[in-house]
Amino acid sequence: MCTLASSEFSHEAVKTHIETVINALKTERDVSVRQRAADLLYAMCDRSNAKQIVAEMLSYLETADYSIREEMVLKVAILAEKYAVDYSWYVDTILNLIRIAGDYVSEEVWYRVIQIVINRDDVQGYAAKTVFEALQAPACHENMVKVGGYILGEFGNLIAGDPRSSPLVQFNLLHSKFHLCSVPTRALLLSAYIKFINLFPETKSTIQEVLRCDSQIRNSDVELQQRAVEYLKLSSIASTDVLATVLEEMPPFPERESSILAKLKKKKGPGAVSVNELEDAKREGGELNGGGERADTSAMAASNASTPSPSADLLGLRPAPAVGSAPPSTGSLLVDVFSEGSAAPSAGVNDDGFLRDLEQPPETSDTLLAEGPGDSDSAPPPAVSEEPAPPLPEAEELLNKFVCKNNGVLFENQLLQIGIKSEYRQNLGRMYLFYGNKTSVQFVSFSTTVSCPGELPTHILSLNQCSHQLGVRCSINWPLSRWKCWPRHCVAVCMSWDQLNLQTKTVEPLIEGGAQVQQVVNIECLTDFVDAPLLNIKFRYGGALQNLTLKLPVTINKFFQPTEMLSQEFFQRWKQLSQPQQEAQKIFKAGHGIDTEVVKAKLLGLGTALLENVDPNPENFVCAGVIQTKAQQVGCLLRLEPNAQAQMYRLTLRSSKDTVSKRLCELLSEQF
């Protein structure tokens, strides 16, 4: 039956007997028959019945024979990953798996759920909320604590707005499990604590007290002692900006073959996965890790047939591919860009069983700084000397798409795709630009320039200046305690004008067909500004010069700090900002209809706090925030009044600086 279920000609016929197989799994006395039933369920699973089969397997796991539990866990994890369309279902399934059979959940399984959560922006908030709720159980398996510590350390800020999961509540919940855990789990939790100090400065004193106690800094285990001492010192002497750099969010992992499949393949006897199943899962793996957006992995494999495959499991079971390259793809480059073009080397596993990203120095260049022209073994192609082209006609429209979001595709044509992923904290920002070559031909003499409309003082920093001004990246090997400073192998360009400081890091002058390269832009907002920086890209394709200029999506609202306040306080401040020049107002037609949920999402994406029960009219939207610049902080209040009948909006902005009110009004009115 398993053989028939694996055949495309008889698979549908075998599926009609699913109830009989489930009944055998539950009622047969002979353990070998029950194991065969589990194998058959695994073989007959597809997208149409995946949720039913996974639910039945989870139910059976609670009473399953100990001899087959580990294999059952692996099969449930594989099916949940292979056929997941709703990622919240996948997260729920794996957490239930840990709850039901935690002792049999291998490292590969809980590593994998972390990797997928990190790679999927749309599930991070849900995962943080779900794991927070799971940790509240009186009896919580240690693997659940590991997953909870990692996810809350990375994404706890996504649920911190709820008083029930405030920063201190999250920390106290994790720390209540600390003394019941093994040394490796305690080490991971200590790394989560230092991440909390970066995410939630208000927890700093509480966490420092924990790190300072004798049971930590004089711990008999050297690893725990070292972490406690180093984290305590780091949190004491490092500035907020340095902490934000050292403890920044983990970059996406490269998408590769799941190591859970490799582990199941190693298992001998009945139920071992076949080579055909592995290849099938390998082809379909892209559907989970990106759904319809992922590149066609079969085409990718075909194009790489003549070269050593970079495919490997995410846990470092095989050597990782060279940094800065990616396999060719016939599908959307953006997701490949976001997974392969990460800000750190791919993860591996150290002796303690923890993920690592920077345990060994990279063999080529630093992941944040591509190898400079002077470091290449062979001379690069001649530089393109033509003047930058004027901004594209659609540059302003492309800019407006990023006012209320930080990630996405900035530009795409038949040759090139440019993806963006950015993050902001107070008056500082960091933007990752991903340049994807959609063709099979090399881009040569590839260069980028960031400039400001008008006068722009620019200078090239020497290597020492670059290290000093940019700050050599000292990256916490999350969740390890050691960090190392890699030497810079390229120059950086520092651009400064009255409103912004930008520091860009050079990119490779050559991009292979189907590959992507990454560029990092560090941003400092000195004071409020109107014009966005310009990004010029020049390269040669088939000998012809390609020269295009876009507006870099850096707008004043990116430096918003959300501010919560009650109704009385809001209207008191509203009246204080009553001078005519402090207010900007615009009445405009709704461009896409009036959808309450869409409006809320846009206002939150703007960077403000959405205040509930403040305006007497419940249909109106009220927001508050503070623009953080180096020179000053500008308080901003916003009211958006929709008229569903007339399909019109009235937008009113008040701030302590007239130019800010006017610019925010211009930006936001284009979003609806």
TrEMBL record:
Keyword Membrane annotated: yes
Membrane topology term: Peripheral membrane protein
Alphabetized SMART domains for the sequence: Alpha_adaptinC2
Keywords in alphabetical order: Membrane, Protein transport, Transport
GO BP terms: intracellular protein transport; vesicle-mediated transport
Compositionally biased tracts (Pro residues): 379-391
Region of interest (Disordered), residue spans: 272-328, 348-391
Main location: membrane
Record localization: Endomembrane system
Biased composition (Low complexity): 297-313
Membership in a protein family: Belongs to the adaptor complexes large subunit family.
Protein name as catalogued: Clathrin adaptor alpha/beta/gamma-adaptin appendage Ig-like subdomain domain-containing protein
Provenance organism: Alosa alosa (allis shad)
Organism phylogeny: Eukaryota, Metazoa, Chordata, Craniata, Vertebrata
